[in-house]
User: Fold Tryptophan halogenase from Halosimplex carlsbadense 2-9-1.
Amino acid sequence: MGERIEDVTVVGGGDSGLLAALALQRTNPGLDVSVVDDFDRPIPQVGKSTFLAIQQILHDSLGIDEQRFVEAVQPVWKASVYFRDWCGCDPFHYPFDQRRKFPNPEERDTGEAYYFYYAELADSDDHLSKCEQLVAQGKSPWSFEPREGGARKYENVAYHLDTERFNGFLRELCLERDISLVDDEVVTVDTAGDRIRRLRGRDRAYEADLYVDASGFSRVLRGEQDAAFREFDLPLDAALNARSEIDLSEVVPATVIDTGEAGWFWQIDTSDSRDRGYVYASEYVSESEARAEFVDHCEGIDAEDVVNYEFSSGYHDRAWIENCVAVGNAEGFVEPLQSTGLTANAKASVTLATLLSGHGRVATDAVRERYNAWVERTWESIYDFVSVHYAFADGETAFWESARGLDLSPRVELLLEDFDRNGFDAHVDPTMGHSDVDEPLFFQPLDFYALIHNMGATSEFYEAHDFEIDDETRRAVERNYGSIRDDVADHYDHREFYHGALGQH
Ligand SMILES: Cc1cc2nc3c(=O)[nH]c(=O)nc-3n(C[C@H](O)[C@H](O)[C@H](O)COP(=O)(O)OP(=O)(O)OC[C@H]3O[C@@H](n4cnc5c(N)ncnc54)[C@H](O)[C@@H]3O)c2cc1C
Assistant:
């Protein structure tokens, strides 16, 4: 028998907690939702770069008006992850329209076209997808479309968010939507086995039918439950972070990655600041050595402003246990590469909310199991993709040598073997062995192929066979990439967008 849920208490008003509250309330009208947080604590400055699905989650699933969001949060539109230096590889992108660079599998004779991609187009600076062009030309996805009488957007992009503006905006929305924000700190959790009976705050006690632990790595509720933790085989466990001011005209619309001695650096531009980070493995470098390397690498940051964050890579194999669901960093985290955390957490909350709504807010074991399977699959799929970045990285320090040997899942091993033997294949199982998947995974086989090929992986299939690329195909490809370049040249950059075009949106 299940329990009908009338009220929910979310512990933690970071981005994950507020997004969970908004998702639960939106699809479950009548549900009483409150968020308890020590709201005066400073908001963590990490978590700024998002992944493709974020726009659909915020503006469709959560019903957040896009124009209002843009005016309040002033995001930068991110078109790719740009690997400016990944252990000495030629610079390459992971653009959000990567799959569009591959031939259309429904066309005739695609073998030649795949070979063309493999041999010439994949790493050519003259053949950039629209997202790659946006980065190369420093543009936003917005352009003026006279026939539509206003600004038009290329949708295959995500956001760089200023965490204070974003979190402040989410709080405002919660209040508008009758979600209570309670300023308190949970100090004691009363349990009976794995069931949460009551929370005791500094000011008062809280009881609810469902508790959501969104307390970040403090894991205030989850820590009281018997939850197995699946630790990922990634040595990275800390990150240094600092910001400096920039002008809108300097914005790079990509998350930019460079290699470090014991990890990697990020650069994430928002509309008024450049956020820099160094994700490192404390097993290979002390914090003070990492700080020295970080300050040396980044221009314009002050050593005194550098903040250190620690994290663990892995997740609780059951996100929902009894009457408590963990979301956000409280549930799990892979690592910052590919910036999947916030988007995956938001998507998890939307999934939780729709599952509950679809079952009349009655929580049964079957609902819990379905949700837990979704969360597990999401983390595993993200780990699969992140792990490949290290497996093919050519760094020479002790950290990079050991990172090359990390565990790859059998799903990834199979895909790599298949690429070597058979080349690209649009018909490879897009679920990568997750047979119960009913929606696209974050990363699909074509993303893996593109990534490893950019990092230098070859395929015996193309090395052993010769394909002729006819002149007509070449001309068509040139025309296509030329028109993408010209189209992007007409786009607004971020300064033009915010100083003029926003009104036409
Ligand atoms: C180094 C690093 C870099 C990252 N970079 C990215 C990135 O680029 N992109 C991305 O998508 N994700 C990134 N993430 C993940 C990011 O942190 C999360 O995705 C998300 O933005 C915030 O997570 P959260 O809300 O779960 O936790 P938090 O932001 O930590 O929020 C937890 C909240 O719980 C509250 N709280 C804690 N204890 C209590 C208590 N006892 N009582 C009441 N309230 C309490 C805190 O006050 C806080 O407000 C990164 C993480 C790390 C560690």
